[in-house]
Amino acid sequence: NVKHICQNAFESLNNIWVTVPKTVKTIESNAFRITGRIFCEHKRRPKGWAQNWVHTTGDHSWQVFSEVLWADSWHYEDGMPVPNDNEPNLLFY
């Protein structure tokens, strides 16, 4: 029943997978500062999501790389998200 993800909600987490359910209506800027994958049940970014909801930085101390997959780029197998081999992934760098 998650409807909102606030700024810096997932900050500086490494090697994680996050699934964003369809119930999410708003995501604030820089909500995800992670290394890993973000699976979105939406097919594209809704209007209520900040333009920069995935933040990437490359300073000398740390880097964040997030791979974002939309609903048509993945599916569930045994309750876990799995990327489709034939769909391109949207990368945020």
Would you mind describing this structure in some detail?
This protein starts with a strand and ends with a strand. The chain is globular, with a radius of gyration of 13 Å. The mean pLDDT is 86. 0% of the residues lie in helices and 42% in strands. The protein contains no helices and 8 strands. Strand 6 (74-77) and strand 7 (80-83) form a beta hairpin. A 4-stranded mixed beta sheet has the order 2-4-5-8, with no helix packed on it. It is mostly beta strands and 93 residues long.
Annotate the secondary structure layout.
Layout: E1 4-5, E2 10-20, E3 26-27, E4 32-40, E5 66-69, E6 74-77, E7 80-83, E8 90-92
Parallel strand pairs: 1-3, 2-4, 4-5
Antiparallel strand pairs: 5-8, 6-7
